[in-house]
Design a protein that fits this description.
Length: 160
């Protein structure tokens, strides 16, 4: 079942649905492609420019080698800090181009499938509506943009 088609909610992406259902935290980011030997302090100083960081920065260690995995998970005090950090995806840090995105729980896809089996379509729509009231303006803007892009593509086809 493709839930996004079943819900028939304009402008709703899989990431928006995951966030509405609590699978993705809006204040936690994943940072990839870190240089070797990056310290928590260096990340604290660097990512502090985007917003206040809550708690410790998690730097996972490879079980086999005992070395840092060159990724980090950073939780901001609020979603605004995370959004600013994500907007800087591709930024240079110690001569490495960082990959920055919202962090997902390890089994986000499994969680989504479980939720789809356990909850009714109406329950999911209700949660989605609550979430989009907060993030609704962004969803509406994306929908309008996608609609314009689609209509632009159609007009290009007619011209050919």
């Amino acid at each position: 079942m493709k839930l996004l088609e079943v819900l028939d909610e304009p402008g709703v992406t899989k990431d928006i649905l995951k966030a509405a259902l609590g699978i993705i935290q809006q204040d936690k980011i994943f940072v990839g492609n870190l240089p070797e030997n990056t310290s928590e302090k260096e990340l604290q100083d660097f990512f502090g420019q985007f917003g206040e960081i809550r708690g410790r920065i998690r730097l996972p260690i490879d079980r086999n080698t005992g070395k840092l995995r060159r990724i980090a998970f950073i939780t901001f005090k609020d979603s605004a800090g995370a959004e600013k950090a994500i907007a800087s995806n591709g930024i240079d840090f110690k001569m490495k181009i960082l990959r920055i995105k919202l962090a997902e729980e390890k089994s986000a896809e499994d969680q989504l499938q479980r939720i789809l089996k356990e909850r009714s379509k109406d329950d999911i729509k209700r949660d989605l509506k609550k979430f989009t009231k907060v993030a609704g303006k962004d969803v509406e803007r994306r929908h309008r943009k996608e609609k314009r892009e689609r209509s632009g593509k159609k007009s290009d086809r007619r011209e050919k």
